[in-house]
Amino acid sequence: MNSFRDNLRKITPYVPGEQSKEKDIVKINANENPYPPSPKAVEALKSFNTDTLRFYPNANANILKEALAEYYGVGVKNVFVGNGSDDVLALAFQSFFCGELPIAYPDITYSFYPVWCDLFNIPYKTYPLGEDFRINIEDYKEPNGGVVIPNPNAPTSLGEGEDFIRKLLEYNRDSVVIIDEAYVDFGVYSSVKLTEEYDNLLVTGTFSKSRSLAGMRIGFAIGSAELIGVLEAVKNSYNSYTVDSLSIDMGIASIKDDEYFKETINKVIATRERVTNELRSLGFEVLDSQTNFILATHEGYNMKELFDYLKTKKVFIRYFSLPRIEKYVRVTIGTDDEMDRFLCEVKSFTEGK
Amino acid sequence: MNSFRDNLRKITPYVPGEQSKEKDIVKINANENPYPPSPKAVEALKSFNTDTLRFYPNANANILKEALAEYYGVGVKNVFVGNGSDDVLALAFQSFFCGELPIAYPDITYSFYPVWCDLFNIPYKTYPLGEDFRINIEDYKEPNGGVVIPNPNAPTSLGEGEDFIRKLLEYNRDSVVIIDEAYVDFGVYSSVKLTEEYDNLLVTGTFSKSRSLAGMRIGFAIGSAELIGVLEAVKNSYNSYTVDSLSIDMGIASIKDDEYFKETINKVIATRERVTNELRSLGFEVLDSQTNFILATHEGYNMKELFDYLKTKKVFIRYFSLPRIEKYVRVTIGTDDEMDRFLCEVKSFTEGK
User: Whole-angstrom Cα distance, residue B242 to residue B87?
Assistant: First the structure.
């Protein structure tokens, strides 16, 4: 018996993380920035000519590409923009990973990579991180259909330098290599400059973390004109206008306000270092984060219990019940006040034990 | 010799329509609304708490779904929202057309349907419209892997009533039937109510035309909880947050301002009827539009020449150099002033001949 159900996509729903609506909470579970977006981005919103919203957005969001090209010192033809970096990465997976060989990425990394592979029928192989949660560069010598490495990696918080990336690119001249730089602004080497040397390198970024614009959905990629051209062709076969008019203008304003950007980043980094030290003084093991979050554990306590305890105190952190990282908690860096409340509740947890 | 180029997606770039940056133009080429969005949507923008933009948008844009569910008298579980109706339709193609049989749609219709079929490797078969540009319902009796019908159709501007849609659904109990209602608000029967009777029916809509919010990228779909569930699962495997925080709030405000909505629609319809009559009095053949644009031709003149002539006068309409409709021009309904300038230039064109 025929049914329309036969032709439906069989897929396991991916359930996005819950967002609490409670008041007076400390929300340090989604790697969001504790500081508001640039006042110049806010001004771009407030002064926006709303009559123009009846028009479709600027074609291919070219004016935003121009601002990014200028900021990163590349050509406009080397820049792609999308509806958050998830959109950019999903399009990149569809655009560059059309071969038979499995693509390669670490076993502990951004949880969307296998989801996109399943959605687009891309074969993949994961390579385990070392005991120290570092990527073993030699794993990526094996022939593959493409490579994806977040730098810094999440949820480990660990970044790699230029030597590592160059080695990775030398090992993979015949694959597209994507470096996912969602957290790069918080203090690790950026591979953007290498896109001039390597035409198989795509670097992706987002306005959701360092630029406090998660609510506006702006992601981008930088790479050779050839890679960007394929990405653009696939995107234009999907949806011509993925970035809306307000996001375009606010994105431009944010990019042009480098002073506020650096100030915000530096505040987050200073708080991160302080919290890392305080946790270590309480006996926690904390990885050397180069992101806006930390991965921490303690030999004496069960981290799932800590996670649950903090929840009762309205402090929301992240716990992954996954092999190898089930002994850790991931904590986003909030404001100093938020982190003081977090530290205070951590102390009350350890003292209650 | 291996190369990363072997694994790149081979795709013909789809080039979106050009957007002119000139001043003092009459832009009646993209079916945009000539009136600004609801003042309540503008107020939602101006009063938006920008500090919250550092957070990801409301999960699954549920608050916008709730507003749409109330407006259309359906359950929240029957509503899907996306980044413009192109995003919604592209996801629907991926979600519902996974069979072997070709999907069915008219030969003259929205130009993105074959693009999505190519992108997602969906077999398709087109059925020619009649000489009167009407859809022949009997064509859709043939076994198929799914059906897509825009109602009203574009660029023909012609709509169909309840009898037609019911017949279509009766012929296709074993296929998902998508009714693309991008232009429905300008005066044709909406199939939304039928989603309660037919669990294989998906109706899609957009805020880009009747709600003057093309710049904010808001699309939606209404259907059985089963279809919406699959759509949601595919979307959440692609990008969890496709509609940004401002679009959500502005969309809700627009939906709640029914008075302004109806007023705008009625103005567009009144102008459409007037322009249709004036063109007919000039000897043009104009189809009975149920949209915010008209399809027109004239036995005595070459429409490509009219299109080119108007361009020199800074009046931008649309011409398709495609079989069967190459004898027509498509003209979006602008304000009365804009249409007066259009009509004046049309007269100067015909008089110059």
Answer: 9
